[in-house]
Design goal:
mainly alpha, 6 helices, elongated
Length: about 200
């Protein structure tokens, strides 16, 4: 075995190793160049070739609209009915307190003293049928019906006024002064609600 054979083998290995390193360095540089090119280009939008993109059409659901309208009308009717019943009852209690309940038109029947005393307590300033509590119950009911939605204030005001008119018809004329004061207190309450909601009336 000659020394030249071993030396020759080393030369061949060195040449192979050097070529391999050169290729690896070139590949690395190429990859780095692609990465830099991608970084500088940013994100590239490629439009979809999907031609069947759906265009959604919108149409009102008239069943839901009709249901909501019926619900709103029912709630308005509820408030009218409540106002009519409450103010009629308030007027009756007021007349009982003044000893003229019963056959009011003839004025022949007088209430007993205990009933009159209870009625007077009920229509007192802080009594159950007094202006303060009665007007607050009406306002609370209106707020409960609308869920506190300020855009419904005027509708509730209108329903209240219709209920008041019905109470007067049921009563057969002008309601007692306490009911008129309650009417004014409720309207003031609606005004306050509108003012707090920033609604101009």
């Amino acid at each position: 075995m000659s020394v030249n054979g071993i030396t020759g083998a080393n030369d061949v290995y060195g040449t192979y190793s050097s070529a391999s390193q050169t290729r690896n360095a070139a590949a690395k540089a190429e990859n780095t160049g692609e990465a830099k090119a991608t970084e500088s280009a940013g994100v590239v939008y490629e439009p979809s070739n999907n031609k069947t993109a759906s265009t959604k059409s919108y149409k009102p659901n008239m069943n839901v609209v009709a249901q909501m309208k019926a619900d709103a009308e029912a709630r308005t009717a509820q408030l009218q009915s409540l106002v009519q019943k409450m103010l009629t009852k308030q007027g009756e209690t007021y007349n009982t307190a003044n000893g003229i309940w019963g056959l009011l038109a003839q004025g022949k029947v007088k209430a007993d003293p205990a009933t009159i005393a209870q009625a007077k307590a009920d229509i007192a300033e802080d009594g159950y049928w007094g202006v303060k509590q009665t007007s607050q119950r009406i306002l609370d009911f209106a707020t409960a019906l609308t869920g506190g939605d300020p855009s419904k204030i005027e509708k509730m005001r209108s329903a209240f006024q219709k209920g008041y008119d019905k109470a007067q018809k049921t009563w057969g004329g002008q309601l007692p002064a306490i009911s008129q004061q309650t009417y004014d207190a409720v309207l003031s309450g609606f005004d306050k609600m509108a003012q707090e909601a920033g609604i101009q009336s």
